Every structure is written in C-alpha cells, then in structure tokens.
Amino acid sequence: MMLLELENVAVAYGRIEALHGISLTVNEGEVVALIGANGAGKTTTMRAISGTRALANGKITFNGEDISKLRADLRVVRGLCQSPEGRQIFPGMTVMENLDMGAYTRRDTAGIASDLERVLTLFPRLAERRKQAGGTLSGGEQQMLAVGRALMSRPKLLLLDEPSMGLAPLVIRQIFDIITEINQQGTTILLVEQNAQQALSRAHRGYVLETGRIVKEGSGQDLLHDPSVKEAYLGVA
User: Fold this and answer.
1) Is residue 182's pLDDT more than 70?
2) Domain boundaries, the chain
3) Nearest 5°: phi and psi at 195?
4) Within a 13 Å sphere around the CA of 43, how many CA atoms are in the beta-carbon half?
5) Of 36, 154, 211, 213, whose CA is between 20 and 30 Å from 19?
6) pTM of the model
7) Check whether domain 2-233 has CATH 3.40.640.10, yes or no
8) Phi then psi for 7, rounded to 5 degrees?
9) Residue 124: in which H helix or E strand, if any?
10) For residue 52, with 0-12 CB atoms within 10 Å meaning exposed, 13-18 middle and 19 or more buried, which class applies?
11) Where are the strands (E) in the chain, listed by range?
C-alpha cells in the first residue's frame, strides 16, 4: 500500500526554485533513501513533507489524504513525524523530558508508556542517561534522542534527515543498525542522507536528487551498484 506520494512538488525560496516538480512514493513497510549532494534539495523535500515549507506547486498525499495545505502539527497527529537535520533536541531539558515532548499530541497513557519502553530498549544509552540534560550528551547520543523523540509520536512514517551528520564511523554504523531495527519492527522510513553507502545498503528503494530534480530511482542495491552513483556519491570511479 502506498503511504506517501509526492506529485510534481515544487518549492521556492522567494524567486529561487529549490525543487523543480519532483515526484516520489513511499510504500508501507519500506525504507526509502533520498540521496544527493549538499544543496540538492533534500532538506527542502523533508520540510515540504512535514509541512514546515509551503508548496509552490504540486500535491502531497499521505495515507490516502491530500495534506498539501495541512498544518505541520496536524501532520504529526496523522502519523508523519520528522527527526530533523542537526537533531534540534531541547538542550536544557532532560532525556526523559525530551522524549515526553515527542508524545505531546497523544493522550493514550498506556500506549505512551509502552512506546517509552520500546525507545529505551532500542537506545539503552538513553535509559542510562534519562535524568541528564540533552545538551550534555555526545553527538551520537543526541541523534539517538532525536530519533527516540520522533518515535514517541508513534509515526506511521518516520522522516530521518541526515541522521549520520557529524558522527564517527562506528556511531554511524550503530545508528543505521537501529534504523534497520525500527523498520523491521514495522515503521516505514524515508531517509535523507549524504552517506549514500549506508543509506542505499539499508534501503529497499532510493532516489537521487540533483539541483532540485530527481535524476535516478531504483532499488537500493541497483543504485548502490550504478556506475554514475558510485562515482558521484561513493567515491568509486
């Protein structure tokens, strides 16, 4: 079943068009990767989907509903939640307070408690640091907290924007292992990532974005072995 569809989506910053009519789909149960260089339009695509950037043209359908003009907070209620680029945790709040903020749209106490247990099982480091201020965590721990906070909304679709940014290789591998586990537990994921090797090796399908246009799409493995993708994004000639 198709969970998310972008049809001919264009986004502009003033007179500068950042996305030039892109179309993509995410099916239920998939990990879909969106890769591209800096400035390709990856984060703008995420902002358009999450509702923090208005469309200049096109249509976004989520779970059968046209959400093109729906407010960002109502998209979260519908089951669309983003772990943003740069993590953007609340540095003065404890780990637990940050996780509580992820569930702010929910009233199902038993479900929240169950999801909190799930998050602390996925991220044992957060359980160890539950009373610690978010701003005192390492970069990897802050990324875990950002993903955990997003999971507390119980999303149907989890948007991950550059989860590996600024992290050491060992931590990156750990984060991607957890992303795979989250997907195997039933959460659909759209992943925007500069680390094409990790993203495509974990993704069912992928899209390549260049200067606001999708130039390639295919299975994760096909894109991983595509000569032009290897040369441009994997450092292999």
Assistant:
1) yes
2) 2-233
3) -80, 85
4) 12
5) 154
6) 0.92
7) no
8) -120, 110
9) helix 124-128
10) middle
11) 2-13, 16-27, 31-35, 57-62, 65-66, 80-83, 157-161, 188-193, 205-210, 213-219
